[in-house]
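From the methods appendix. Each design record in this collection lists the tokenized structure first, followed by the designed amino acid sequence. Records were kept in a plain field format so they could be parsed without special tools. The example shown here is representative of the layout used throughout.

RECORD:
FOLD TOKENS (306 positions):
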């Protein structure tokens, strides 16, 4: 009985010793634990003032998230309606895509045919290039010839311009256009001039020769009026000057489209001859010109431009 009691005490003593050893080891780690607790405490002290700010920011974020949710909830119907509206377009695109996909074999066959034609064209390119070279050579020769003709063309244009300026003088000398002297002799008594004007006017030669200058050679009228226009003006001005009751006369040429008015002005005297101021308003195309001439009657009763 006494022997079992001693084992129990020994075990108890061993347990106490182990506990003491454990407590000793624990006590050795206590300073480190206290240091870690102090550091943790310092970190908590530093973080704790910012916790309120973090909580406030989280509250603001929650408010913004609520607003975003409300905005999304408001816009969701419009978005859904737009999606529904786009569905027919998408379906149409799908249908067209299917149609194009069905057309692809035909398109590919056409492309193959075009490639064959391109190959044929490539084989015939040398002959085409030779023809192009020939055309280029011909064009160069033509350009050279045109360059040689250019000075002559300019000269011809200048001569045409001069001929237009001298048309009135040519018109006043009608007798030079009548070749047959017998025709001149037989028709002069009736006052019919048939040569250059082909029956446009009915005035004797001496009357027409006196009307030289009713269109100034350097005027625009001399440039644009035709021979028939000037002949009509001559005929109308003679009739106007010989009619004391008439103050104005009008002429118009249907063929040329030109027209004009002749106005008889005030009477005057020059070299003991009775004279009249005559105004010619000539219209040609969209342009017009006014010419003023002094016409006097001689001893033979013929009006002449002075």
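DESIGN:
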């Amino acid at each position: 009985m006494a022997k079992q009691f001693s084992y129990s005490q020994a075990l108890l003593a061993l347990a106490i010793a182990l506990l003491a050893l454990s407590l000793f080891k624990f006590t050795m780690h206590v300073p480190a634990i206290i240091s870690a607790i102090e550091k943790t405490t310092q970190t908590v002290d530093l973080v704790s003032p910012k916790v309120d700010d973090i909580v406030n920011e989280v509250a603001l974020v929650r408010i913004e998230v609520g607003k975003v949710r409300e905005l999304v909830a408001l816009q969701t119907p419009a978005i859904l309606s737009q999606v529904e509206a786009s569905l027919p377009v998408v379906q149409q695109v799908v249908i067209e895509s299917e149609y194009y996909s069905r057309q692809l074999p035909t398109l590919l066959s056409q492309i193959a045919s075009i490639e064959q034609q391109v190959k044929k064209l490539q084989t015939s390119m040398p002959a085409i290039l030779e023809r192009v070279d020939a055309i280029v050579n011909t064009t160069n020769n033509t350009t050279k010839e045109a360059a040689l003709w250019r000075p002559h063309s300019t000269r011809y244009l200048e001569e045409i311009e001069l001929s237009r300026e001298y048309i009135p003088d040519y018109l006043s000398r009608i007798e030079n256009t009548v070749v047959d002297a017998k025709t001149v002799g037989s028709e002069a008594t009736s006052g019919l001039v048939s040569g250059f004007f082909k029956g446009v006017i009915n005035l004797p030669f001496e009357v027409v020769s006196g009307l030289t200058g009713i269109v100034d050679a350097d005027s625009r009228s001399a440039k644009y009026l035709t021979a028939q226009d000037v002949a009509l003006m001559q005929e109308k001005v003679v009739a106007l000057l010989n009619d004391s009751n008439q103050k104005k006369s009008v002429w118009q040429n249907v063929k040329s489209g030109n027209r004009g008015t002749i106005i008889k002005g005030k009477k005057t005297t020059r070299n003991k001859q009775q004279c009249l101021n005559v105004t010619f308003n000539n219209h040609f195309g969209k342009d017009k010109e006014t010419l003023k001439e002094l016409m006097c009657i001689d001893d033979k009763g013929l009006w002449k431009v002075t």
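APPENDIX NOTE: DSSP finds six helices and five strands in the chain.
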